[in-house]
Design a protein that fits this description.
The chain is an alpha/beta fold. The chain is built from 13 helices and 16 strands.
Length: about 425
């Protein structure tokens, strides 16, 4: 069901901020929505996150792809007015801060222009913190080491230079603190050569310049569920990482061979609500929906029934759970504000409109409409045909043939003179092979 825009009521908003035990809602924020020299070089002139988003196609009947924006359009984050509009809407619907992904590679920063402009813009009045996305950038978009585009090298001076790069953000009055300490996240602490030594250097430097103590948080990603082993202060869940639910690939008929995972939203949500950790200081997190088909196509993780109603239940139950901790500085993270290529966004889209934003406000202001996830069905045409040997052989052959052709096209396009020579032949072949 599509949910339409509703103007938030001030009395409901005030309730959320009067309740001293209500956790702050922090949404992860991606800054890749603007051209950069690196993306021009790696993916082609003018590439932004929107390039992948708009090319996504459904993988099965009822699959909602592509995800396309409404209110903010296909925005460019170099435009200040766009960021200010995002902040205004986020605050209206109960978001208390953004956690910006921070891309730092041995002194080289990427996707930093919107972040730097935010820092210098006093009208961008949204609390914020940073998450160091310390993994290799690869052509596969999943952090695996396949054709590395830019690597994390972890050079001898990187620990000191990295923490120095964060100081201008830590010193900003909008920066989020936990018990008075600047708070930041490391996405993959398990990649640090010596995490405890890195943390010690960061702490000592911040003390030496008079900043005081810092709060270092480990993202619980890629199998890691123990922040304490790294000498960190806390952990933060990062769904859908570390899933404990089985896929249901065999319950849906895909248009083409599918090599990813199809999962149910309610099972993932409940697994996160139920899980506990050996170390006790873990910040809870939720996601509104998840479907990274735009990036990984047939290797995607697709979560069925990522609806505003299901998300409202998960967020509501998480807030209620967190309030039981009675800690003063509690945060609940939402993944994410604008991860459009991962089908994971609070920003309005063409299918649900303001549904996820309204669900956020409903959860924050204590409206408890659901005792469980209400949407648990399968797509309309979910009957699976019997498997056929020769048909599957043909599908596999066609898939790999297309893959080889795409790789060949990519290689040719990277060599201008060869592309110039072959282009007339390609055009002739298209004319000859096109249906009459």
């Amino acid at each position: 069901m599509t949910m339409h825009c509703q103007t938030p009521k001030n009395d409901r908003e005030d309730f959320a901020f009067r309740d001293g035990l209500a956790p702050r809602l922090i949404a992860f924020y991606l800054t890749q929505f603007h051209p950069t020299p690196e993306n021009d070089r790696w993916w082609g002139k003018g590439f932004t996150e929107w390039t992948n988003v708009t090319k996504a196609e459904p993988l099965f009947d009822g699959h909602r792809q592509p995800h396309l924006p409404t209110d903010f359009g296909f925005y460019d984050l170099r435009v200040r007015e766009t960021r200010r509009d995002q902040i205004n809407v986020a605050k209206q619907y109960g978001i208390d801060g953004f956690c910006y992904h921070y891309y730092w590679f041995s002194g080289k920063r990427i996707l930093n222009q919107p972040l730097d402009d935010m820092l210098s813009d006093s009208e961008s009045d949204m609390p914020f913190c940073l998450c160091w996305a310390n993994e290799n950038w690869t052509r596969r978009w999943d952090g695996a080491d396949h054709e590395v585009l830019i690597a994390q090298e972890y050079l001898p001076d990187d620990d000191l230079n990295f923490i120095k790069s964060l100081i201008p953000f830590f010193e900003d009055k909008r920066y989020i603190r936990i018990d008075g300490k600047p708070y930041f996240i490391v996405y993959r602490p398990q990649h640090l050569p010596n995490a405890r030594e890195s943390v010690a250097i960061w702490r000592e430097y911040c003390r030496s310049i008079g900043l005081g103590e810092i709060h270092v948080c480990a993202a619980l990603t890629h199998g890691n569920e123990d922040y304490a082993q790294f000498g960190f202060d806390s952990g933060v869940e990062f769904p859908p990482h570390n899933p404990r639910s089985a896929h249901i690939n065999d319950q849906v008929k895909f248009f083409n061979p599918f090599h990813g995972n199809l999962m149910q939203y309610d099972e993932i949500a409940q697994s996160y609500l139920d899980r506990t950790y050996d170390a006790s200081y873990v910040f809870k997190a939720v996601f509104p929906s998840w479907d990274n088909t735009a990036r990984t196509k047939e290797r995607a993780l697709v979560v069925l029934n990522g609806t505003p109603e299901n998300y409202e239940y998960w967020l509501s139950a998480t807030i209620d759970l967190v309030k039981q901790s009675n800690r003063n500085d509690e945060l609940v993270f939402i993944n994410a504000w604008n991860e459009w290529a991962e089908g994971c966004h609070l920003e309005p889209d063409r299918f649900y409109g303001h549904g996820f934003l309204q669900a956020t406000l409903n959860a924050k202001t204590g409206l408890r409409r659901f005792a469980a996830c209400p949407d648990i069905g399968l797509p309309p045409a979910h009957k699976v045909e019997p498997r056929r040997f020769w048909r599957e052989i043909s599908e596999v052959a066609n898939y790999h043939s297309r893959l080889k052709i795409e790789n060949l096209k990519l290689s040719v396009n990277q060599i201008p003179w060869l592309r110039f020579i072959l282009l007339p032949f390609v055009r002739m072949a298209r004319i000859f092979l096109s249906p009459r």
